[in-house]
Write a structure and sequence with these properties.
The protein is an alpha/beta fold. It is about 20% helix and about 35% strand. It has five helices and 18 strands. Strand 3 and strand 4 (about 30) form a beta hairpin. Helix 2 runs parallel beside helix 4.
């Protein structure tokens, strides 16, 4: 696992991971969003065959992070499966891996708009949202939420022009009261962090955040695109 960056949020100490995840040491919780398992098989069912390895790759990465952090729990913040019929397409090997992960950690599935989790929990638990230490964890941000909130859904990405090259990376988007996680799944696209659809979730300015070599790089967002690598600044533990 690459070096994590300390991250203070809502009075709690987290670790922001470069691997598109958040870790909460106090609860031993690895927090991820938007795995979109079985997306390739969904495309295949529509006549657009893709190599059927996305679920294995996503679960490989998840297992490695769980082992590296020593996670006792994994909280998946919705759209863990690409569609409501994914459970009917999952091959036995993937189902067995999910059951094994649930046996090794406390596996919590937050229902998303794509999955619905109607196919079962594979040994984990299902909830619409999860509230711990005053922080609410859900799939999609609610604009009128007054509690600190962690969510997914929007797949934020940071797009920069670095030395004449266009670079795009999954990122976190957040302010003091709201944090949107990047998509964890191996076969997921993304939306520019400054897109108005993401910006409208924040009352004012917010930041797009990346972790590089154990440091959190923050890029200011105001709802209008900023494609300037010089706008970043490095923050230590905050």
């Amino acid at each position: 696992m690459s070096a994590a960056a300390p991250f203070a949020y809502a009075g709690q100490s987290f670790q922001m991971l470069p691997d598109r995840a958040l870790f909460w040491p106090r609860h031993g919780a690895l927090i991820v969003a938007d795995l979109h398992l079985e997306k390739a098989s969904w495309y295949a069912a529509l006549g657009q065959p893709l190599p059927p390895y996305d679920s294995h790759d996503t679960l490989d990465r998840l297992a490695r992070l769980a082992a590296a952090t020593g996670a006792r729990a994994i909280w998946c913040l919705g759209d863990s499966f690409h569609d409501r019929d994914a459970a009917n397409r999952i091959v036995p090997a993937i189902a067995e891996r999910l059951r094994g992960q649930a046996a090794a950690t406390q596996l919590l599935w937050i229902a998303g708009n794509h999955d619905g989790l109607t196919g079962g929990a594979w040994g984990g638990e299902i909830a619409d949202e999860h509230v711990v230490d005053g922080i609410v964890f859900r799939h999609q941000s609610l604009v009128h939420e007054t509690r600190p909130e962690v969510s997914g859904h929007f797949h934020p990405k940071l797009r920069l022009n670095v030395r004449g090259r266009h670079v795009s990376r999954p990122c976190f988007a957040g302010d003091e009261r709201r944090l949107i996680l990047p998509a964890f799944g191996s076969l997921t696209g993304g939306m520019t962090a400054t897109d108005p659809v993401i910006a409208e979730n924040f009352a004012g300015p917010y930041q797009a955040m990346l972790v590089v070599r154990g440091r959190r790089l923050c890029f200011p967002c105001t709802g209008s695109a900023r494609d300037d690598a010089t706008a970043s600044r490095t923050l230590g533990a905050s």
